[in-house]
Write a structure and sequence with these properties.
The chain has 311 residues and is of the alpha/beta class. Helix content is 36%, strand content 16%. An eight-stranded mixed beta sheet has the order 3-2-1-4-5-6-12-9, with helices on both faces. Strands 7-8 form a two-stranded antiparallel ribbon. Strand 10 and strand 11 form a beta hairpin. Helix 2 packs parallel to helix 10, helix 4 packs across helix 5 and helix 5 crosses helix 7. The termini are far apart.
């Protein structure tokens, strides 16, 4: 269903300016289904350990539903608890910083799901000065972000969304876990005209693989956070022999830290069909889409920062 909201689109020149990779320090929020698998924990830690580039203002728990939850609400609650656990290992309180998100997916493309996260994002974005967007880094189902946009459509001109979702727009399918959980929410984000930096999964973020052996060699014993991350990866597989794990959520953070590590191109905002396929219309506004991830410099930076934490 196409959203009925009449979005006020940015002028093309301003949209292009905001789609230009940032080079200075930026303000951001992180929207994460942290308990879904193992990569969100790395991405959250990477954000918090990169203050030279990222001023993290809030973290939102996103819903998810897979073998690690009994439903979207349970997934969100488990993610919220995991956020607090990780913040504790980082020496940071979650009070006024971590927010519970949506307890369900969007029922359609026009009805927001109320939550503390969506309300905080709407208020925080509206408080931004014109021309200084709040970067919204989303690494799960994009329900919270779409809900905030539907609650307050004007924030489409106040934010820039960096989302790990779907597959490359040249692929025959967009069907991927983050996107497929809430297709109406994805449509809201692609239709609203906000600057979107899309980091697709297969063939792009999927380059970011590591192994338990590498993790032990690079960050093992460095601090409590490193040991906790290694434990999460260790417990996710019964057998780690000749097995790599994708840590693809860190791709979004890496693009903000050094856009050269995650090269991108401009393309027209895609349309999503009911069966989660991409459709294309060259009259639509532009977004930026990543087409590769340089694995080695990203992991070198991530492992260096993780290992430098003093606890």
């Amino acid at each position: 269903m196409t959203p009925k909201t009449r979005w006020e689109k940015l002028p093309e020149a301003e949209l292009l300016r905001r789609l230009t990779p940032p080079r200075g320090r930026i303000d951001m929020v992180l929207d994460t289904d942290t308990f879904n698998e193992v990569d969100d924990q790395f991405a959250l830690s990477y954000c918090m350990l990169s203050p030279e580039k990222l001023n993290v203002q809030a973290i939102y728990a996103a819903p998810f539903f897979n073998e690690n939850s009994s439903g979207p609400e349970d997934g969100m609650e488990r993610s919220y608890d995991e956020i607090l656990r990780l913040l504790g290992k980082l020496g940071r309180s979650g009070e006024g910083f971590a927010f519970r998100g949506s307890r369900s997916y969007l029922p359609d493309g026009n009805t927001p799901v109320d939550s503390p996260a969506a309300r905080d994002l709407a208020a925080r974005a509206m408080a931004r000065p014109d021309g200084d967007p709040l970067y919204v880094v989303a690494i799960g189902a994009i329900t919270n972000v779409a809900s905030a946009l539907l609650m307050e459509p004007r924030i489409a001109q106040k934010i820039a969304v960096v989302w790990l979702g779907g597959h490359p727009t040249s692929f025959p399918t967009a069907q991927e876990f983050n996107l497929s959980q809430d297709v109406p929410a994805a449509r809201v984000v692609f239709d609203c005209g906000a600057p979107v930096i899309l980091v697709p999964c297969m063939g792009v973020a999927s380059n970011l693989q590591t192994t338990l052996a590498e993790l032990k060699a690079c960050i093992g014993g460095k601090n409590a956070l490193c040991d906790a991350l290694i434990e999460i990866v260790r417990d996710c597989e019964p057998d780690h022999f000749a097995t790599a794990r994708v840590i693809w959520d860190v791709s979004t953070v890496a693009w903000l830290i050094n856009p050269d590590w995650v090269p991108t191109k401009l393309t027209h905002s895609p349309l999503l069909t009911d069966d989660s396929r991409w459709a294309h219309d060259e009259t639509r506004h532009l977004i930026r889409e990543a087409y590769y991830c340089h694995r080695n410099p990203i992991f070198r930076d991530l492992f260096t920062k993780l290992g430098s934490l003093k606890t």
